Amino acid sequence: MKKLKRSARLVEMTQYLLAKPHVIVPLTMFADRYASAKSSISEDLTIIKEVFESEGIGELHTLAGAAGGVKFVPKMSRAGALQLVNGVCRLLEQPERLLPGGYLYMSDILGQPAIMNEIGRTFASVFADKPIDVVMTVETKGIPLAYATAAHLNLPVVIVRRDPKVTEGSSVSINYVSGSNKRIHTMTLARRALKSKANVLIVDDFMRAGGTARGMMDLLQEFEATVQGVGVLVEAGGVDEEELLVEDYVSLARLAYVDPKTREIRMAPGNYFEEDTTR
Q1: Alpha-carbon distance 177 to 192, whole Å?
Q2: Which of 43, 198, 223, 250 shows the smallest number of beta carbons within 10 Å?
Q3: Is the peptide bond before 140 cis (omega within 30 degrees of 0)?
Q4: What secondary structure does DSSP assign to 228-267, as a single string?
Q5: pLDDT per residue rounded down to tens, the chain (279 residues)
Q6: At what angle are helices 113-126 and 143-153 packed, to 10 degrees?
Q7: Which residues pair with 207 in a beta bridge?
Q8: Contacts with 66 (C-beta within 8 Å, 6 or more apart), sequence order
């Protein structure tokens, strides 16, 4: 128990809520923590709620009843997400990023905590209303994105491996066909990594035809799990709908055009920003 000036209390309460997204915090906890009346705590939370919403940080939900309290839900406005994605697109349009096969070098961007944090907040905002138990990705480049998203949803991360690991015990493995080159690959998931009938959010850094995402979805059937959403940072453009192996997904950016000769790359916002999207 500590008595703080209101300004200091507001700062500490804000930090506490930001560090515990999607967690119900009882008003009595704050009242006891700061030796303050519930009415004072309620006034403080009203101020924090107004700032969160006006600055596009997130929403502060009030839950009534004996088990009530407040819950912070991180949010990213569509305008804020578009500004973020446009900046990422400009980075991805650098000619030296072009790799054989039309792929883009993205590892440096995926390794930037500040960028991943905002991308994760965007995905957390998109799927905030879904009943999700875990965030899943496949090794290795999707891992930073998965952890950033999971941090804002306050959920664990499950990583699908390309090869079984002896340190993970018994596992389930499946073969899947790559959507881009039609080759057969293998992915595996430890049996202890995921509870049966879990609700799963799949995220990945790049999707061409959706072979990897479809592989994860098929793997999840072995766990009787439900896929609540699929989010990809960048999707390849120019893929015919009949070639897509995943129908319902959210993309933040699209690789719209690539010229291997001139090394020209054009990026565009993904389907999340399409007005007519129902995803």
Answers
A1: 25
A2: 43
A3: yes
A4: EEEEEEEEESS--GGG-S--S-EEEEEEEEEETTTTEEEE
A5: 667 899 999 999 999 999 999 999 999 999 999 999 999 999 999 999 999 999 999 999 998 876 679 999 999 999 999 999 999 999 999 999 998 877 789 999 999 999 999 999 999 999 999 999 999 999 989 999 999 999 999 999 999 998 888 888 999 999 998 766 678 989 999 999 999 999 999 999 999 989 999 999 999 999 999 999 999 999 998 888 778 889 899 999 999 999 999 999 999 999 999 964 444
A6: 60
A7: 235
A8: none
Contact present, 277 and 271 (Cβ < 8 Å) = yes
What tokens does 14 get?
């804000």
Tokens coding 178? 């790559």
Q: Kindly state the DSSP code that residue 137 receives in the 8-state scheme.
A: E
| Distance separating alpha carbons of residues 257 and 277, to the nearest angstrom | 21
Interatomic CA distance for residues 110 and 205, integer angstroms: 8
Residue (of 216, 232, 233, 73) closest to 154 by Cα position: 73
Choose among 77, 110, 106: nearest CA to 92: 106
Strand partners, 266: 257
Distance of CA 108 to the CA centre of its chain: 18
The amino acid sitting at 87 is G
For residue 278, the model assigns a pLDDT of: 41
Written in H, E and C, the secondary structure of 171-236 is EEEEEEECCCCCCEEEEEEEHHHCCCCCEEEEEEEEECCCHHHHHHHHHHHCCCCEEEEEEEEEEE
d(CA 148, CA 135): 10
119 vs 117: CA distance, rounded Å: 6
